[in-house]
Design a protein that fits this description.
Blueprint (H helix, E strand, L loop, with lengths): L3 H17 L5 H7 L6 H13 L3 E2 L8 E2 L1 H11 L7 H12 L4 H16 L2 E5 L8 E10 L2 E8 L4 E7 L6 H15 L7 H5 L8 H20 L5 E4 L16 H7 L2 H8 L8 E4 L11 E8 L7 E8 L4 H21 L1
Antiparallel strand pairs: 1-2, 3-7, 3-10, 4-5, 5-6, 8-9, 9-10
Helix pairs in contact: 1-3, 1-4, 2-3, 5-12, 6-12
């Protein structure tokens, strides 16, 4: 266990290095921070921190920089989440409130996160595996053609055309719409197949084929839309951090193109808590020089997807964590109200 004083020295080193981009020396620390001890004591503390792997000395400098282990301790024990100011919160709310549909919400969220954090923003679309049915609408387009509209609790809307095996009257369509919504509205997608399996039996024999066709289209829609989707933005922000990537930025850019990699980075959508993965904690080798800050978002206190940012390990963790958390909270509110 590090002493309280050495924890304070580590915090000061992280803050100065993130702010100045320069390795930090003991003289600069004592001048910038009220540590209450002499430069010689700070040098001893820095030597102890280096021995334990929390800081390291770049070859070309007398100063020290944090290691992945040092950033990890900083995030776990030393960094509070920096709250957004009232003007920042209003700006977030005003920007996101203008969204017209789910695609617009996700697109605006990506742009906002990238601007607020000056990192790469990644937003996962709400997963249908964790969504519930808000409403199923059935519209007659022709005697034997129906439009099925599926609306989720997250505002996602899916439309399908259904070619029926026989003409289906308005009264029968209204009956099917009412019975279908009474069974599935407010229920998880995963429960729908079980809830509707006996529904054709409630209709006259000549209508059962059409009811079965409509239901099979509904179930196909649920299966088709289970694949996870992401939107990414702000990749150009990485070019500001060229010196933070020791060899080349190319592995980072290649990793960001892999959707499977990004989904693993964000973590399981059902986990709504804040996650910070630092440097080599990212399993994908191309991202060993980056950190990922992610959090779940959703309505009703349950996460339906994740959003977050990817940037260099030399990151303003309190500010980034605060921005990610605030944006996730507003997106959840929008979904709940949509």
């Amino acid at each position: 266990m590090l002493s309280e004083r050495r924890l304070q020295v580590l915090r000061a080193i992280v803050q100065d290095y993130v702010g100045t981009e320069e390795p930090v020396g003991s003289k600069a620390l004592t001048e910038r921070h009220s540590l209450g001890v002499s430069p010689a004591t700070v040098r001893n503390d820095m030597a102890a921190l280096e021995d334990e792997g929390y800081i390291a000395q770049p070859h070309t400098s007398a100063g020290r920089i944090p290691t992945d282990k040092g950033y990890r301790l900083f995030v776990d024990k030393l960094a509070g989440v920096k709250p957004m100011s009232p003007p920042e919160r209003r700006a977030i709310q005003n920007f996101l409130d203008g969204a017209v549909d789910l695609d617009d919400v996700v697109a605006r969220t990506v742009r906002l996160l990238a601007q607020l954090t000056r990192q790469v923003a990644v937003v996962q679309y709400p997963s249908l595996t964790r969504s519930t049915v808000r409403h199923v609408e059935l519209l007659s387009l022709a005697p034997a053609r129906v439009m099925l509209v599926l609306i989720t609790d997250t505002g996602r809307v899916e439309q399908r055309m259904v070619d029926c095996p026989a003409p289906f009257g308005e009264a029968s369509l209204a009956d099917l719409r009412a019975r279908l919504n009474s069974k599935v509205a407010g229920r998880r997608f995963s429960d729908v197949p079980r809830l509707v399996e006996d529904l054709p039996e409630a209709f006259d024999k000549e209508d059962r084929g059409t009811v079965s066709t409509v239901l099979s289209t509904l179930l196909e829609t649920l299966v088709e839309e289970n694949e996870e989707r992401l939107m990414i933005g702000g990749t150009a922000n990485l070019t500001r951090f060229g010196h933070d990537f020791p060899l080349t930025i190319r592995p980072v850019l290649e990793a960001l193109e892999e959707q499977v990699v990004l989904l693993k980075l964000l973590g399981e959508a059902g986990d709504s808590g804040m996650t910070v993965r630092i440097g080599h904690e990212n399993a994908y080798e191309g991202l060993n020089s980056t950190s990922v800050v992610s959090v779940g978002y959703g309505s009703g206190g349950e996460a339906v997807a994740k959003l977050g940012v990817v940037g260099p390990t030399r990151m303003d963790y309190p500010g980034t964590m605060g921005a990610v958390r605030a944006v996730a909270r507003y997106v959840g509110q929008i979904l709940a109200e949509s």
